[in-house]
Amino acid sequence: MRWSEIFRLVLLNLFQNKFKVFLTSTGIVVGTATIMLVIAIGTGGRMEVAEQFKNLNAGAIDIYYEYNDSGGRFGGGFPGMGGGMPGGNAGFGGGNAIPGGGNFGGGNYDAGMPNMGMFGDFGNRTNTENIILSTSDIAELEEYVPGIANSTISYTVKADTEGGNLEESVSYTVAGVKENYDVISNLELAIGDFLTEENDEYKDKTCVLGYGVAREMFDSMLDAYNASVYIDNRVYVVAGVLAEMGTVSSGISPDETIFIPYATGIKYLTGKDVSPTITVVAEEIGQVADMMTDITAVLADNYGSNAVFTISDAGSKMEAAEQSNQTMTLLLIAMSVIVFIVGGIGIMNVLFVSVKERTNEIGILKAIGCDRKDILLEFLLEASCISLVGAVLGVLVSLGITPIIESFSVRMELSLWGGLLSLVFGVLTGSLFGFYPAFKASRLIPVEALNRE
Fold first, then answer.
1. What confidence tens digit (pLDDT) does each residue in 62-90 have?
2. Which end of the chain is more exposed for a tag (fewer CB within 10 A), N or C?
């Protein structure tokens, strides 16, 4: 039998049983839609992770101290953007802990590691004293922890801000940072310049606006540049505006932050009662684990073993987020495989019924000269066509429900290869599950087939 005749028979049977074809392909519809959505969600998740951490330096380590006393305040920071967007002014909450006043003593370091008690009474601090990290701690870390390529210190505080088109004051996150913060955090400027060492030294009232802040306060970034804004009722000049960066995993976005010189914020906003974050960057990512161990040892020697610091690296955050995304993708893939199997079994069952219903037809075809290969191809093509119909409908369904899923803040990235892969999976499923019924049909003996009712 020629291929054209086989195709004509397949199409004739499909069009005569359109409703049955639609019901049979339902499982393939669901499976194809699921696999396409899985690919879209997985791709969107990976892109979301990449965007969230694009301003994270993989070799960055954030260090901050959380003071938590009964009735006291909770200081410390949100580990940041790999240049540590620390969170929280230490002045928030109840209780006023008085920083300890230990004096730096002499002491020698053996083989690059500190001896206990080197810093006088630092080693005798108690948990009720507040520890405030400072640039002197950075100097100690740079001296005694090998492999540090760069370092900075920063903090954040909420402050009422006015200016531009704002009709009333708005509370924004204000970050006190050093001049190298933009390099460590991979921040990009859309216009103007970042803060300088001189700005910090002279406690200049100058600032850099995040993209979202500039758009909210002014009509454009050009209008924001060199404009004046009021932070806590003091006027600051806008030295620059950041390019749009997006959110980060800690929930803080540079887009919604105002950056001011570190010393300026200490003088006018927080006072000395602040809980900053130190960020150090490893020369090599492979050194991060050893550096964290060395940092812990240095801080324990400086402040005593009872002082508990939070030390986290950006690489672990990225790996955790990626692992979470991969786990979700695997679960969705498992679900889609189950749906495909169910759909394939449905096609197999329908084809078995179809073989029984069309036994006489098979006998006639064999009687007029059709061989086993022709019968096998006919039923196999029917299974493939049914699954192809289901796969196409599944792709259309996935396109239709994508906007609904995105409305729940789930990022999806549809792609052409995702659609093609879904079609291939759908057709393969129908063909694989349809092979055995087609094989059984091809093995029927003509005389028996003609005599079977």
1. 898 876 543 333 334 434 445 444 444 43
2. C
